[in-house]
């Protein structure tokens, strides 16, 4: 289809170059009507009217330079009564060579991406360095905008050369760091935590001789070790990301006009690329040619929108048959400004400067989609790098911090305050007669620095590595990979689960399970009867063909009519590969139905946009039909129809299938449809009502004329088209039957969702799929419980009255909310707080038609408003932003590739593995780390209390009680192994986490590490420290001559106290725990002879020493054990109750 300019534009068209610079820089109607931000600029300067006058004069009479906004008519052809735009892939293609334009509202379909202040400033700086300007282009009108907010004009012969620096590079980079930012970024991430900063200050203080206490290495080495391990781990992760990026960037492509293959990263806007089947689309492209004569090409968009069904794309009719040389030199394209929407695109293509054709979403190949059709296609690069839809819908990865670390950080601040108060108090009690009192305060701060032990970070980091190893080697969840080892504890704190649908909850494997004809139904076991009926389809001269039946049809004839209708009423295209037939369609439901008709003996043999041919398997006969009109399925109409002409019988038929909610009013009256659709829905089947209507030649001609007129209407076009369809077609259809299609769920999805819900986790399903599909899957997956009310909000575009839609949910908090992306977007924009104040309390929310960015926004908003941990799970490229925006991102390796898996914190192979990951590994990781952190703090607190008691008793002198090796050995050799062995402990058996998922609620409440438990451990440390140091001093005295005896008793009791406390805290013993306890005890006893510098070894050899140590240990441990046993008996925790009950 082409547009020929009138005489008024012949002069412009005669010049193939026609002053391209002027054409780019001038402000014509094309620019004004297309760009929203440009309109705003013109309005502000009060020259909008003048510009419109100028544009009318400059292109008066020209059909070539039509306004870009008028191209929206190609999209509006498929809109519903409310004016909402259809999914781009479901819009009808332009038929019969007629281009329909809608000038009623030229800005209706425009959407210009908004930049943040940071993005704008970055673009400004970049333009200043690359173009020498301040991000603004000069034009004749003295009004100019940055390139990212205006449409772009592309000339394949010049744009890749002269404008190569004007557009972003196509290089992909998912790396978090570069050579310059690596060290500063990591240091910031480490020292933004208070306790790490505290360790740094203490370590640096040892450089001052007056403040030095003990060995310098005892303060520097642990901190340096932590930083080194963290940097190495982050460096390895970033190197892996760069390797994956390199594979993508150096993927080679054939570019017309270039001898050698070109790497993906070197592709420029304007390059013309040849793609073959299976090739990844490297950038956002405009399809120019296809090896198919019809210009058709199928692509797989699973990495973009999560839908594994193939999408049909059409080459521009102007370029489908031109030579490659003409593609390079005689075409130009105009494309809209880059935007996030993957369902919208406006543009035009001009050939030889004289003929133009509009470009819509049907002509696009977005980046990271895959060519699915056999043969090849040729396309022009329109957007690269960060301008592509995929990049604009992807958020930058951030460094994730676990909730436990934040809680420990807050506790560390309290401990630091305690240290400061204690230090000042001791100096105050000693009196300020000392001129160096401030030095004493600093020395006390360093002496008590063990209260916040540097080994805390070392222990926690090593524990995370242990948890990662345990997860990856769990045989019940094979092939699980931990990609972010810093947040395993958050697996035990999840309160919101945001899940994708396709490939995550479902296998995306459809199968027709049942057909119902009103008086009889056929299931999987009885389909052989249907096959026998279809064998006789052509008997007796075709009397049983769709139009040849008698008024009273027998069952066999009704079955045949049903099968023929199913074989014709769809948008499936068959292809042959290696003598095997495969089906390509925009809906897996339709493929399932076509495969069903093939299985019963009636195959789809050939299909294009104008005809369809069926093959009767039993006789080998083909049944040809002409396609006269197709009415595609969309979420508004909820039905799909087709008008065909039977070439053999010369009859016209209108076939239609759709949801029962709309088809009930269209088919003839009956008394069984409502009941049977309800029965099938309860079985988890997706139902479609099938009907047909015979048309006379005269009726069809009248319909065609009226429909054509309605499609050209400039006012209320959609309403007029729908009115014509209702008048001639959609009434009194013959009801043929009902189909039930099953979307197979992932293994154990139902039980997994039930477990997670019982664990107190609120589940949201965010999908890009249709409303009806999401509803069916939610019911079959038990996401929506039986009898649960589903409150549906769809097609809400205006804020007026929107809050009224939420009123019911305020009353019934047990209802499920089903909302579409359009309505969700409106609430996010106008009533974000009000919407989420209600939604976050609902047990289930299902959001349909969500864009990738909407998914990410929902995750971020829930995190922001609730402060709770959010887990996101998905399997496609469209889920990456959501996964990266979550506290815990889980990717599933499946049919949609590994992109989500690579971007996630945890990679699993099936949804059901999530229950094991959260309920078992999440529980263990959190409870173990909580206990480990408290034990390490207890270990530091108790030694600090001993130091405080000694300082008070020694006339407030800042003298170190334990010096040199004793300080280093206490935190490492003598206590670390037994304390760290707590990472192998578990309080209940694994099976009980599935039997009693309610136990998970205790974790989300944060009871294992809270201010209450922290102060309990503080009190415990204070008691034990006072007992150990008090009795040690009581047995020996505090005089200097008894110092080594006192230290020997005190330190020995301290070490043994820790070993006994660890033993008392263990729930489930194993060999490693026992070995660490025994080995540590043996190590300490064996090292005593080498501690003559710190101990009085002669006293250690006496029986009195053993008696003093045992008495001190008994008084330190027994009251604690007794108190704990009594309290547990009176207030048993929930897991203890479960253990007792299961034991019985």
TrEMBL record:
Family matches, as InterPro entries: ATPase_P-typ_cyto_dom_N (IPR023299), ATPase_P-typ_P_site (IPR018303), ATPase_P-typ_TM_dom_sf (IPR023298), ATPase_P-typ_transduc_dom_A_sf (IPR008250), ATPase_P-type_domA (IPR059000), HAD-like_sf (IPR036412), HAD_sf (IPR023214), P-type_ATPase_IV (IPR006539)
Cofactor(s) needed for function: Mg(2+)
Pfam families reported in the protein's UniProt record: Cation_ATPase, E1-E2_ATPase, PhoLip_ATPase_C, PhoLip_ATPase_N
Organism: Maudiozyma humilis (Sour dough yeast)
SUPFAM superfamilies per record: Calcium ATPase, transduction domain A, Calcium ATPase, transmembrane domain M, HAD-like, Metal cation-transporting ATPase, ATP-binding domain N
Disordered: region residues: 1-22
Chain segments annotated as transmembrane: 932-952, 964-984, 1014-1035, 1041-1060, 1072-1091, 1103-1122
EC number, as in UniProt: 7.6.2.1
Residue ranges constituting the P-type ATPase C-terminal domain according to the UniProt record: 902-1132
Positions bound to ATP: 500-502, 590, 633, 657, 686, 767-769, 849, 855, 878-879
Primary location: membrane
Gene Ontology molecular-function annotations: ATP binding; ATP hydrolysis activity; magnesium ion binding; phosphatidylserine flippase activity
Family: Belongs to the cation transport ATPase (P-type) (TC 3.A.3) family. Type IV subfamily.
GO biological process assignments: endocytosis; retrograde vesicle-mediated transport, Golgi to endoplasmic reticulum
Bias type Low complexity, positions: 1-18
Subcellular location(s) of the protein: Endosome membrane; Membrane
Membrane-topology annotation of the record: Multi-pass membrane protein
Domain P-type ATPase A span(s) in chain numbering: 260-388
Annotated protein name in UniProt: Phospholipid-transporting ATPase
């Amino acid at each position: 289809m082409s547009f020929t300019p009138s005489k008024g534009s012949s002069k412009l068209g005669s010049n193939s170059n026609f002053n391209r610079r002027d054409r780019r820089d001038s402000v014509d109607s094309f620019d004004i009507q297309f760009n929203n931000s440009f309109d705003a600029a013109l309005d502000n300067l009060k020259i909008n009217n003048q510009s419109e006058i100028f544009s009318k004069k400059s292109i008066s009479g020209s059909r070539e330079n039509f306004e870009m906004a008028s191209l929206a008519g190609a999209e509006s052809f498929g809109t519903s009564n409310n004016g909402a735009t259809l999914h781009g892939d479901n819009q009808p293609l332009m038929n019969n060579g007629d281009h329909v334009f809608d000038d009623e509202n030229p800005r209706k379909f425009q959407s210009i991406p908004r930049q943040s202040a940071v993005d704008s400033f970055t673009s400004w700086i970049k333009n200043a360095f690359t173009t020498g300007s301040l991000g603004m282009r000069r034009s004749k009108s003295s009004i100019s905008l940055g390139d990212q907010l205006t449409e772009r004009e592309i000339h394949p012969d010049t744009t890749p050369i002269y404008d190569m620096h004007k557009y972003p590079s196509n290089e992909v980079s998912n790396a978090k760091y570069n050579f310059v930012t690596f060290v500063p970024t990591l240091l910031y991430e480490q020292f933004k935590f208070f306790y790490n900063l505290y360790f740094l200050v203490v370590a640096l203080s040892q450089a001052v001789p007056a403040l030095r206490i003990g060995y310098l290495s005892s303060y520097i080495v642990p901190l340096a070790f932590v930083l080194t391990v963290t940097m190495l781990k982050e460096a390895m992760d970033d190197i892996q990301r760069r390797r994956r990026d390199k594979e993508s960037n150096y993927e080679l492509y054939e570019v017309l006009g270039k001898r050698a293959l070109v790497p993906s990263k070197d592709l420029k806007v304007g390059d013309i690329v040849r793609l073959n089947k299976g090739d990844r689309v490297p950038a956002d492209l405009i399809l120019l040619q296809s090896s198919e004569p019809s210009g058709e090409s199928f692509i797989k968009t699973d990495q973009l929108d999560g839908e594994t069904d193939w999408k049909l794309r059409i080459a521009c009719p102007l370029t489908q048959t031109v030579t490659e040389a003409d593609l390079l030199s005689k075409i130009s394209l105009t494309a809209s400004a880059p935007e996030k929407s993957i369902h919208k695109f406006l543009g035009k293509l001009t050939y030889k400067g004289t003929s133009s054709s509009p470009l819509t979403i049907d002509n696009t190949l977005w980046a990271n989609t895959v060519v699915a059709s056999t043969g090849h296609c040729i396309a022009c690069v329109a957007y690269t790098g960060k301008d592509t839809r995929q990049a604009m819908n992807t958020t930058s990865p951030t460094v994730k911090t676990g909730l436990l670390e934040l809680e420990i950080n807050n506790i560390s601040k309290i401990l630091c305050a305690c240290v400061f108060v204690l230090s000042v108090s001791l100096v105050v009690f000693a009196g300020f007669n000392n001129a160096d009192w401030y030095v004493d305060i600093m020395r006390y701060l360093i002496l008590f620095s063990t209260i916040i032990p540097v080994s805390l970070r070392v222990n926690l980091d090593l524990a995370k590595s242990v948890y990662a190893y345990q997860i990856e080697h769990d045989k019940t969840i094979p092939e699980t990979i931990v990609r972010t080892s810093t947040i395993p504890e958050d697996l035990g704190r999840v309160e919101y689960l945001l899940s994708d649908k396709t490939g995550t909850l479902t296998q995306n494997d459809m199968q027709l399970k049942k057909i119902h004809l009103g008086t009889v139904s056929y299931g999987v076991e009885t389909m052989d009867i249907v096959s026998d009926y279809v064998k006789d389809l052509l008997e007796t001269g075709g009397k049983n063909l769709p139009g040849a039946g008698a008024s009273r049809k027998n069952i066999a004839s009704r079955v045949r009519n049903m099968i023929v209708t199913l074989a014709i009423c769809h948008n499936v295209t068959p292809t042959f590969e290696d003598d095997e037939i495969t089906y390509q369609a925009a809906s897996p439901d339709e493929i399932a139905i076509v495969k069903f008709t093939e299985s019963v003996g009636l195959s789809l043999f050939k299909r294009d946009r104008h005809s369809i041919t069926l093959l009767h398997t039993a006789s080998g006969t083909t049944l040809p039909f002409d396609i006269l009109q197709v009415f595609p399925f969309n979420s508004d109409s909820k039905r799909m129809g087709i008008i065909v002409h039977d070439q053999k019988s010369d009859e016209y038929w209108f076939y239609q299938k759709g949801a029962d909610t709309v088809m009930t009013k269209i088919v003839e009256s009956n008394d069984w449809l409502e009941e049977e659709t309800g029965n099938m829905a309860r079985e988890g089947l997706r139902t479609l009502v099938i009907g047909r209507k015979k048309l006379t030649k005269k009726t069809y001609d009248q319909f065609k004329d009226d429909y054509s007129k309605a499609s050209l209407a400039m006012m209320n076009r959609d309403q007029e088209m729908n009115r014509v369809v209702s008048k001639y077609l959609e009434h009194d259809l013959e009801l043929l039957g009902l189909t039930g299609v099953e979307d197979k769920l992932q293994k154990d999805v139902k039980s997994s969702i039930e477990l997670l819900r019982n664990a107190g986790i609120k589940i949201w399903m965010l999908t890009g799929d249709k409303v009806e599909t999401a509803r069916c899957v939610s019911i079959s997956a038990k996401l929506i419980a039986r009898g649960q009310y589903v409150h549906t909000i769809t097609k809400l575009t205006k804020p007026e009255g929107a809050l009224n839609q939420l009123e019911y949910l305020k009353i019934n908090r047990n209802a499920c909310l089903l909302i579409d992306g359009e309505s969700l977007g409106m609430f996010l924009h106008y009533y974000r707080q009000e919407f989420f104040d209600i939604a976050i309390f609902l047990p289930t929310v299902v959001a349909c038609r969500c864009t990738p960015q909407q998914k990410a926004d929902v995750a971020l908003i829930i995190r922001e408003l609730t402060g709770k941990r959010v887990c996101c799970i998905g399997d496609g490229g469209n889920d990456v932003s959501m996964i990266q925006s979550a506290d815990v991102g889980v990717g599933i390796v499946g049919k949609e590739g590994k992109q989500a898996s690579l971007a996630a914190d945890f990679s699993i192979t099936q949804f059901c593995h999530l229950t094991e990951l959260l309920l078992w590994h999440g529980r263990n990781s959190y409870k173990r780390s909580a206990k480990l952190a408290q034990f390490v703090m207890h270990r530091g607190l108790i030694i600090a209390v001993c130091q405080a008691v000694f300082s008070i008793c020694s006339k407030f002198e800042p003298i170190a009680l334990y010096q040199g090796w004793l300080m280093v050995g206490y935190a490492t050799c003598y206590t670390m192994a037994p304390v760290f062995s707590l990472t192998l402990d578990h309080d209940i058996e694994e099976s009980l986490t599935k039997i009693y998922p309610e136990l998970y609620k205790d974790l989300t409440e944060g009871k294992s590490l809270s201010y209450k438990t922290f102060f309990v451990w503080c009190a415990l440390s204070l008691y034990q420290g006072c007992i150990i140091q008090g009795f040690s001093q009581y047995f020996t005295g505090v005089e200097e001559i008894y110092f080594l005896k006192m230290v020997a008793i005190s330190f020995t009791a301290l070490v043994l106290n820790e070993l006994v406390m660890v033993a008392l805290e263990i729930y489930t013993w194993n060999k490693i725990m026992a070995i660490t306890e025994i080995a540590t005890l043996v190590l300490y006893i064996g090292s005593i002879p080498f501690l003559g510098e710190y101990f009085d070894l002669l006293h250690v050899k006496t029986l009195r020493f053993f008696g003093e140590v045992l008495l001190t240990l008994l008084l330190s441990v027994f009251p604690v054990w007794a108190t704990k046993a009594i309290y547990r008996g009176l207030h048993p925790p929930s897991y203890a109750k479960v253990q007792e009950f299961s034991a019985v």
